[in-house]
Task: inverse folding
């Protein structure tokens, strides 16, 4: 169990404490090098000032279209310091999808951009020192991506990583005189946890209508998860690796676990995360204690020449898809001293709700485990009634980590977030997962009640892909399924197209290809659907 001696559950307040108590300790490491807690906190303060100058107010949503890097973490803290809500978007997504998500969430500011060169950084410092009043406009506005919604402003967070103390002070005081929000952000949040009711982030997940849906999570839900999962982690963790996409919550165990406990967070470069030998060398060189990863990704990385180096020193957390027992057994053989935790939880219930330690299982995959301390889990039938112990039904989740609902989707929210029959005004989230409770109290995953699948840890609604295909010229109809070549193999998407013009689907394949984490797919074309007899 990880120690938790703070008097606040608000993450920025905890980071502020680390900046005071251990200012020169390393907080973050990415491809540009280490960043200490003091510099992280000051950087986020300058960004918070820029957000206030751009008119961001409590409750507003700010898009972060950034890769895994120190700027992404600083941007999150900045957004939270002004009590706003961040919306992470994957910059690699198609422009039409990015534009729709940015418009749907109503963001007025988009944080994006690349690292500045040393010359550009010097220019920022000189500009700030010369004229603090216009520092925000001069330093951090960028031309913006082509998918930017009309009227939105872009900020480059790297422009605020200012090494000069005088320039930093000048930038920190930009437009501060009339801004109560600015003073609150700069003074640092107090231990008053009333701020926990505010939304912390919105994450978009796949939707069966062809449009993704945004899940709204509060600071209270995130804090409940971090408190609960801390009780399941072993002692002695001092560092964690973060190698998941920023646009999903799979990596929040590492990302926010590090900010919660004061670990050093290693933000793994995308090229290193895809290279088994490079990743193994990084983990070994930096002696990383904790890793959260999708089982299929880990399976690929274990092809490294020194496979045992891929694994962390103290704790490996598997999540995002069912964990094969054969993989768990190999992990136990390669590094027996590393505690293996199977981790389950939909985005709608703040990262995770069930965990299970150990590699042993009689089934082909590890059980999901038992609920965290704040979680209420129950299995119901089609009418919402509790099933007898051991019977199969739909897994429903209640407790402090349940999301507010879906952004701008009241009907879907009412459908999936239902009243708790035990009363007290609480709600249960219907996961859509088939499950049953085992004799020892653990829950087992038995598949889905709908067509949703997991591809490399990402939730994918095949109907969303099919709907996108049907919009393409020459495609009469489309059906998309998940297919595995063999038992235990990672699934891939297979699209069946009915085309009026046979050449058109091939010509436009690049347009309709799924996003990067779904690239392993194939396509079959029909003039009409085969008839079943």
Result:
């Amino acid at each position: 169990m990880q120690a938790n001696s703070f008097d606040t559950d608000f993450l920025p307040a905890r980071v502020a404490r680390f900046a005071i108590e251990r200012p020169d300790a390393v907080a973050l490491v990415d491809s540009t090098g280490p960043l200490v807690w003091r510099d992280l906190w000051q950087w986020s303060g300058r960004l918070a000032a820029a957000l206030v100058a751009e008119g961001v107010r409590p409750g507003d949503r700010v898009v972060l279209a950034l890769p895994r890097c120190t700027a992404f973490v600083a941007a999150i803290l900045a957004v939270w310091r002004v009590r706003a809500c961040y919306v992470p978007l994957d910059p690699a997504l198609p422009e039409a999808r990015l534009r729709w998500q940015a418009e749907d969430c109503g963001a007025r500011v988009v944080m994006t951009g690349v690292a500045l060169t040393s010359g550009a950084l010097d220019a920022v410092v000189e500009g700030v020192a010369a004229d603090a009043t216009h520092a925000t406009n001069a330093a951090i506005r960028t031309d913006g991506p082509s998918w930017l919604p009309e009227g939105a402003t872009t900020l480059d967070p790297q422009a605020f990583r200012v090494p000069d103390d005088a320039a930093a002070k000048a930038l920190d005081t930009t437009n501060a005189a009339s801004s109560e929000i600015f003073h609150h952000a700069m003074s640092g949040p107090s231990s008053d946890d009333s701020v926990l009711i505010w939304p912390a982030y919105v994450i978009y997940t796949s939707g069966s209508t062809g449009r993704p849906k945004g899940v709204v999570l509060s600071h209270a839900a995130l804090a409940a998860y971090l408190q609960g999962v801390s009780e399941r982690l072993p002692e002695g963790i001092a560092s964690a690796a973060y190698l998941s996409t920023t646009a999903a919550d799979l990596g929040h165990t590492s990302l926010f676990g590090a900010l919660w406990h004061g670990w050093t967070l290693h933000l793994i470069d995308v090229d290193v995360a895809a290279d088994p030998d490079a990743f193994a060398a990084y983990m070994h060189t930096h002696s990383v204690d904790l890793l959260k990863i999708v089982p299929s990704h880990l399976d690929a990385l274990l092809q490294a020449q020194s496979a045992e180096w891929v694994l962390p020193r103290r704790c490996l957390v598997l999540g995002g898809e069912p964990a094969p027992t054969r993989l768990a057994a190999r992990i136990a053989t390669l590094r027996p001293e590393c505690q293996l935790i199977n981790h389950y939880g939909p985005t709608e219930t703040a990262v995770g709700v069930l965990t299970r330690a150990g590699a042993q299982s009689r089934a082909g995959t590890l059980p999901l485990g038992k609920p965290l301390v704040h979680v209420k889990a129950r299995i119901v039938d089609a009418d919402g009634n509790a099933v007898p112990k051991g019977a199969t039904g739909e897994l429903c989740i209640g407790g402090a980590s349940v999301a507010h609902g879906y952004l701008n989707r009241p009907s879907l929210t009412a459908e999936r977030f239902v009243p708790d029959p035990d009363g007290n005004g609480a709600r249960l989230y219907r996961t859509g997962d088939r499950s049953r409770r085992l004799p020892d109290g653990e829950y087992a995953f038995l598949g889905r009640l709908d067509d949703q699948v997991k591809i490399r840890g990402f939730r994918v609604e095949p109907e969303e892909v099919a709907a996108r295909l049907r919009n393409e010229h020459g495609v009469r109809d489309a059906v998309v399924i998940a297919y595995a070549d063999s038992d235990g193999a990672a699934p891939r998407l297979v699209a069946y197209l009915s085309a009026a013009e046979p050449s058109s689907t091939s010509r436009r394949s690049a347009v309709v290809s799924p996003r990067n984490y779904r690239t392993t797919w194939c396509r079959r074309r029909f003039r009409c659907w085969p008839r079943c007899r």
Remarks:
- The longest helix spans residues 37-53.
- The domain at 461-526 is CATH 3.30.300.30 (GMP Synthetase; Chain A, domain 3).
